[in-house]
Amino acid sequence: MSKKLLPRVNRISKLFQPLNIVPKDSKPRDEASSKSYKLMVDMGIIRQSSNGMYNLLPLGLRALEKLNTLVDDEMANIDAQKVLLPHLIPSTLWKATGRLEVAENELFMLHDRHQKQYILSPTHEEAVTSLIASVSPLSKKMLPIKLYQISSKWRDEMKPRLGVLRGREFIMKDLYTFDADLDKAKETYDLVCKAYDNLFQKIGVEFVKVAADTGIIGGSFSNEYHYVSNIGETVVVSCTSCNYFATTEIHNKSSCPQCQRELCHNTSVEVGHTFLLGTKYSEPLKATYTANGKPVPLVMGCFGLGLTRILGAALEILSSDEELRWPRPLVPYNVCVMPPKNGSKEASASRYADDIYQVIEQSGIDVILDDRTHFTIGKRMIDARRTGYPYIVVVGKRSTEPRPMFEIHDLYEDKRLDLSFEGVIDYLRTTNDDQTTRYEMNEVRYKSN
Amino acid sequence: MSKKLLPRVNRISKLFQPLNIVPKDSKPRDEASSKSYKLMVDMGIIRQSSNGMYNLLPLGLRALEKLNTLVDDEMANIDAQKVLLPHLIPSTLWKATGRLEVAENELFMLHDRHQKQYILSPTHEEAVTSLIASVSPLSKKMLPIKLYQISSKWRDEMKPRLGVLRGREFIMKDLYTFDADLDKAKETYDLVCKAYDNLFQKIGVEFVKVAADTGIIGGSFSNEYHYVSNIGETVVVSCTSCNYFATTEIHNKSSCPQCQRELCHNTSVEVGHTFLLGTKYSEPLKATYTANGKPVPLVMGCFGLGLTRILGAALEILSSDEELRWPRPLVPYNVCVMPPKNGSKEASASRYADDIYQVIEQSGIDVILDDRTHFTIGKRMIDARRTGYPYIVVVGKRSTEPRPMFEIHDLYEDKRLDLSFEGVIDYLRTTNDDQTTRYEMNEVRYKSN
Lengths: 449, 449
Description:
Two copies of one chain form a homodimer. Chain A is an alpha+beta fold and 449 residues long. Chain A has two domains: 59-317, Bira Bifunctional Protein, Domain 2 (BirA Bifunctional Protein, domain 2, 2-Layer Sandwich), CATH 3.30.930.10; 333-441, 3-Layer(aba) Sandwich (Rossmann fold), CATH 3.40.50. Chain A is built from eleven helices and 21 strands. Chain A has helices at 35-42, 58-77, 91-97, 99-103, 125-133, 182-203, 282-285, 307-318, 350-362, 377-387, 421-441; strands at residues 46-50, 53-56, 81-82, 88-90, 108-111, 117-120, 145-154, 169-179, 208-211, 221-228, 234-239, 244-247, 264-278, 288-291, 294-297, 299-306, 335-338, 367-369, 391-394, 406-410, 415-419. In chain A, the strands form five sheets. In chain A, strands 3, 7, 8, 9, 10, 11, 12, 13 and 16 form a nine-stranded mixed beta sheet that branches. Chain A has a five-stranded mixed beta sheet with strand order 18-17-19-20-21, with helices on both faces. At the A-B interface, strand 1, strand 2, helix 2, strand 3 and strand 4 of A face strand 1, strand 2, helix 2, strand 3 and strand 4 of B. Chains A, B: It is an enzyme of class 6 (ligase).
């Protein structure tokens, strides 16, 4: 939207990435009960501010913003409109729908100076329905309406745990749809689920979509998206022969209800939840459209994605105990370029690092320069591998040869190559092109039901 | 960051833009006490959710996101790092700096289920200082640190007014800097102010930068950025002969303290505020770096921009009583293309609208199609002018001539032209290129002091 006027270089020396030096013989910290959470703190991706609340540091926010862009892209494809609703919601709205009593324990609530009570929103069904009600009755021509936002949400969890996986303040993407009748609403529901399927395929972490319980949100039916992981708090059952998937809240038996074969049980993390709501909110709050001259309640759907949780869960699934690994489209920087150490024999070749940086950057690939040249390549390489930059280019010993050669460390393929300048650029361009096409080819092993 | 896989068309029929039809003889509404606020509500840019809180609808959020992009751009130029801090802040932090008592009346506060008190943040000095303290003492090599965020803020105003100009929940951009000593902090302060000057020049609305009072934020000195407008709540004094500018809180006399000439007084809206804080926060909260083996408090600066307020104030200044006008870089869509009415004589030429749309879109210009072809051109033209799309292309009567001609309505230049297909494209490309270069040439009449 605006032009870059100055050449800029992303430099690790300027990056705010406080690294925790953990003594080798230290005991595992209590709160750090998952490997990804430990690594996210140690590598300066997030940092706790208070119980269940986390600062997103530059690398963490950068990954989140890439996820936001993927979401915006999928939403534009289905003509969903982005809005931003206030986070404080009059509690009278929640009284009107009967949710205040049910959810009270987990709500953050406050009174303003005029003694009016507000809820710090965990979800926006009432708020968005009240917005639509304020312009009701709508003309049928305006339907379907699909409004979404990406914003902070709150839940006063009794026991927050695992960093951003179960925090008390977190980032959600929530979408609300309004249709004329149940058939249309079901069409919209399927369209949105298709967009969510696409999104999860692009992220590239294996997911499973299951039949789910509607819980206190309510409505006629519901699906959940899960990442299978041993740190999960829910259990999903799946049947490999007939593609039946459900949460144990829906189906708690060991045999499949469709084909009677034995079911697999997997612990998993819920990362998305979709509901066909019907008129549970539109009726009490009077969100309507005109049919035959009369106002008729709109039929709603709602669709949530836990964005910070997707990030945390994906990192948990992809990382090793020692090194972070990111979903390809969410990695903060794709390439880390490393000039030689100051005063080393190769120091004279350090201009190659700048040149490689520039050419990669001009190819539209996200790159960062590790210009902390007071550190050895070895020390910086450990940091880069732990941070999880998938491609690390080192201007090392062979950079002073008559035909200079550079190291590429490819963390996804787990290999190292020595390549010429052109070879480096080609390699990075090719792997990056692959990445984009790979989204489309990426097969989802667990099919949706 | 990701490729568009499908051709997409932005269509007004899909846009959620509830238009208020205001009866001609209606009295002005009480809450609508400024022309821009009335227009923003009538044209579906924002909509009130409760006292002093506003839903940003798709067009409003789109403008805000363009402003965010401008901010991100300027911040990248000065190596500032984007973060996101939790909105809930333990009130103990505010007790430690002595601000809790001073600000209490305007704070939204709550208790969690463990009876711990939190503030819904109006500003993040304590929170960010506590983050830095958690990784203190820093090495001097890490300085300066510049962290910023774009996020919601809250202030429990006694009397919210004028829509997003003085709301209780609003979007701020806040930047915090950390330096080794006062001289370095002053250098950083000047660097950031330069970036803010650039930003305000790009937005293009005439601004004035004045000496200001440090108020309850504190610190050694402070500047404010103001938009001159009769709906403003502050008064700035300026001397045209010696370029002295100040708020009346700083200088409340009629003559200039530098040259004794008479001062001009103008009501204005404060849109930015910068502070050289010193160690007011870093000392009690122990944000330090190591000098001579000892921890020394960091010298801080803080820099706020009221993003939703900038948007509201700019619209107030640029709009007429009847029609919205946006700052060029913030307009939700630059071009609105209008195909003929269904069933009209020109209906056969409607393919030109699609073609024009596609070519403009491929030129990287933000465009929207007013495909509500059940409405006349006249009706849609009124909506487009009131919404403030600066370039409106109409496929009208002359589109069926042997050499088809199209109307361009240029709202900035207040003129209408009849041009060929190529002429339309050229005109739009040229004005859009101009727009980018105009940023750089844009003179700021009120110089900073």
